[in-house]
Task: inverse folding
């Protein structure tokens, strides 16, 4: 798989040229190659022993104890679930908030939580409303809701400032949080964020009832598995099946019609609540980071570079030959970069030397 389309004339410098770390392109590629050798084929049908996932995720294991905060939305009270994980050793005084993507939940941040807490960070991983152990209200969702709920949680915990990290759709939430609450944000990291373009021009609005029918009747083991397989260009590994089991298990529950309505409402966010006009207003020190071979978009490196160029103070890190979930595919290089960024002084300018490289440039541009 060639990187020349994404990285232009200097592919060997594309990942490391713009920041001073000991990690190089060879390390990332070696780990990616290791995932190829370890790959297996996922089961063609769901294992017979799989059970339904409870709508409140009460039968889904979490890596750390779960707490709850009561929040109010549209005049009704709901429970926001979160893990507040203390540093494993000496605390460095910094707090990191993690926002998950559409097909995951807070427990899916297990490797990132461990990597951060082992470096002295306090980590708060939130189940957004509609996901995991949080309430599943049938409401009209937008990105303001999880951003405001996260701020309420920080206020309740007495945390004035925190670093914000979001993966996939969680990157959209991270964008909204940093845009809305700059005074509470020390750093913001967007990991293979989706919503990188405004999808509305030339595309008609879809009635939520149609989206609901599509989710309700179109969600199968095969569709869920296919969605997760898209994340990993270097092949399937057995540990990825855990996330398929949790998501598919929702369809086996008697609460699936309700859950399908909630998931359909969450899907509408992508069309109805874009964040593409907010990056230019974010002055917080930012990191745009992800795998170059993200199959969820046509050209992730180019789109990621566009985000970094619009942000006022951003670094850009692109991992060649890696897909949508670098935290699973190449955990060591990915977390090393994330930790390096989160440790940096939020009041000092980001390293913007990536602007002088070919990272994300279209050949000839």
Result:
């Amino acid at each position: 798989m060639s990187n020349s389309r994404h990285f232009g004339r200097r592919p060997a410098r594309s990942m490391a040229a713009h920041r001073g770390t000991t990690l190089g392109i060879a390390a990332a590629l070696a780990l990616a190659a290791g995932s190829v050798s370890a790959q297996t084929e996922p089961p063609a049908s769901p294992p017979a022993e799989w059970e339904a996932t409870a709508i409140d995720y009460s039968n889904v294991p979490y890596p750390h104890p779960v707490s709850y905060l009561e929040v109010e939305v549209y005049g009704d009270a709901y429970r926001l679930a979160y893990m507040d994980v203390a540093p494993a050793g000496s605390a460095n005084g910094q707090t990191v908030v993690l926002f998950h993507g559409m097909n995951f939940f807070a427990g899916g941040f297990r490797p990132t939580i461990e990597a951060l807490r082992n470096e002295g960070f306090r980590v708060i991983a939130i189940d957004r409303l509609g996901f995991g152990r949080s309430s599943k209200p049938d409401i009209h969702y937008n990105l303001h809701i999880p951003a405001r709920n996260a701020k309420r949680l920080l206020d309740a915990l007495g945390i004035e400032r925190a670093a914000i990290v979001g993966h996939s759709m969680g990157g959209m939430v991270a964008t909204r949080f940093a845009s809305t609450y700059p005074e509470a944000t020390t750093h913001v990291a967007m990991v293979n964020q989706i919503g990188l373009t405004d999808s509305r021009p030339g595309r008609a609005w879809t009635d939520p009832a149609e989206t609901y029918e599509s989710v309700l009747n179109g969600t199968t083991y095969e569709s869920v598995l296919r969605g997760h397989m898209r994340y990993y260009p270097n092949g399937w590994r057995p540990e990825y099946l855990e996330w398929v089991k949790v998501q598919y298990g929702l369809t086996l529950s008697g609460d699936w019609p309700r859950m399908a309505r909630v998931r359909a409402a969450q899907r509408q966010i992508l069309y109805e609540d874009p964040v593409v006009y907010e990056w230019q207003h974010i002055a917080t020190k930012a990191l745009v980071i992800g795998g170059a071979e993200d199959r969820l978009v046509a050209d992730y490196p180019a789109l990621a570079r566009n985000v970094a160029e619009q942000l006022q103070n951003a670094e850009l890190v692109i991992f060649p030959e890696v897909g949508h979930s670098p935290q699973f595919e190449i955990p060591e290089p990915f977390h090393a970069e994330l930790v390096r960024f989160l440790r940096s002084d939020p009041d000092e300018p980001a390293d913007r030397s990536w602007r002088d490289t070919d990272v994300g440039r279209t050949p000839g541009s």
